[in-house]
Amino acid sequence: MGAIVSKIQRLNTVFSKSATTVIPLDALCDELCSILECNIFLFDTAEHIFTYSVAEKFVCPYTERSLVKEELPQYYMELFNKSNESVTNIYENQPWCTYEDVGNCLFSNRYYSIYPIFSNFEKVAGILFIRYETPFSAIVTIEMLRQEQERIQLSSMEIARAKLAVRFLTFSEKKAARAVLQDIQWDKGEVFLNSIASKTYTTPSTVSAALQKLELASLIVTESRGVKGKYIELVNQNLRNELEVK
């Protein structure tokens, strides 16, 4: 269990970096190869291999020769194209070599997993993991790769939604929205439109318009509390950052 936890922590580090900085694909593959102790091939929907990394203990005489064409073997692509679901921990007793015109693989007991990669909900690429002799003992870490990708994509969508909503606020509405968020604590609380209008030298109708736009964009939820008071709950944390952008 300790080894699995360690690998999860290392994967966390990899994806934390990839979410905030540009990591070369070959460096990312090398890091994942080291963490999961398996061969990794990153490919697109046209069978082209972007980059790959081979675990030292699985290097064979055909490794370099096979990748001259930089194409993923057809039977892997058939599995990849069959559905949008992941293929995990498939076992082959006496596998054929993944490289053409070789025959039987020099290694026996092959395990492989294929994970699709999505962009804007469209399958654009995939990752093939290959390991010999022992199954993926840390299969949870591979599944975590898929979940983390979904999290990063969702986070990007949340940021984009906040940016778009703030862009459609007028200058006065931005001031009002900023003041509202400054007034509520722990991302929820009650505000009074007249008070916010007074602080920002705007009008209650301006404050109300700002809140309506943000709620329509699903960045906040509001509930009327009478006498022009409103309960506000922030549901998209990116809104604060976007309102601070000058």
Question: What would your notes on this structure say?
Answer:
The protein has a five-stranded antiparallel β-sheet with strand order 2-1-5-4-3, with helices on both faces. The chain has a three-stranded antiparallel β-sheet with strand order 6-8-7. The mean pLDDT is 80. The two termini are 48 Å apart. The radius of gyration is 25 Å and the shape is rod-shaped. The chain has 246 residues and is of the alpha+beta class. It is built from nine helices and eight strands.
Strand tally, please?
A: 8
- End-to-end CA span: 48 Å
So, CATH architecture of the largest domain? Answer: 2-Layer Sandwich
- Rounded mean pLDDT is 80
Sheet having the most strands? 5 strands, antiparallel
CATH topology of the largest domain: Beta-Lactamase
Element order: H for helix, E for strand: HHEEHHEEEHHEHHEEH
Structural class: alpha+beta
Could you tell me the strand content as a percent range? 15-25%
> Spans of 5+ residues with little confidence (pLDDT < 50)?
none
**What's the level 1 CATH class of the largest domain?**
Alpha Beta
What would CATH call the homologous superfamily of the largest domain?
GAF domain
Radius of gyration: 25 Å
How many distinct helices? Answer: 9
Could you say which overall geometry the principal axes of the C-alpha atoms support?
rod-shaped
